[in-house]
């Protein structure tokens, strides 16, 4: 497979996986929690390196997942204690992210786990870092992101009813005997894993867009959760493909172009959604005025 095709596959997997999980954050009005977790997992990555003395993605994934769940726990604890939710998110994620940056600056200067690598990533280098599993050689990032995406699909498939009910009405879910707290932290674990799996390709900052934008665009086009999940995956893949083509043509950042493409897709949905689009609403208002 060509160098460019591996980049497209990696970007598509990242965008699809993050967008798929991000749908539940959007439905629960927790999109900024995804932003918080994507930054707060940094100290978990560094601590995982200290404990394992390895930059293997599996250890990074474990460390980030633990810290991601702890981030959600700290935010929820502060909120229950009386701190406004947005303030709790700001306090927790900035504090943990700052700790991670300090740890990277102090102790990880001799390896490629540096602040710039974690924040921005470099998807163009993905095809050169390969791994062979079961006799199949593919870029390490494809194995990692693909594995996390598969896990996300399995978890959502197993707990689809619970995730759906908790996302739309947590109180009803609790009354129905669904373990709301468990489902909440299960979702946070998926967000954490998707975030760190995407570090090598798009970095912590750009992955925030993929957690929010594809799902937000899909939300404008449908009122059905199953369709929304499917559309978020499609939008993620389209964003990755269009972004790569744009980046090659204009010789710009690949990750930045993919994120820009996702933003343009959202704007198209925002303007022309059959039911919720701005243009559709204006036309409907004009039609009502004429008939009235």
TrEMBL record:
The chain crosses the membrane at residues 6-26, 33-52, 58-75, 87-108, 141-160, 172-191, 197-221, 228-250, 256-278. Keywords: Cell membrane, Membrane, Transmembrane, Transmembrane helix, Transport. GO terms for cellular component: ATP-binding cassette (ABC) transporter complex. It is a multi-pass membrane protein. Pfam families: ABC-3. The keyword Cell membrane applies. It comes from the Bacteria. GO terms for biological process: response to zinc ion; transmembrane transport. It is found in: Cell membrane. InterPro entries: ABC_BtuC-like, ABC_TroCD. Its main location: membrane. Belongs to the ABC-3 integral membrane protein family. This is Iron ABC transporter.
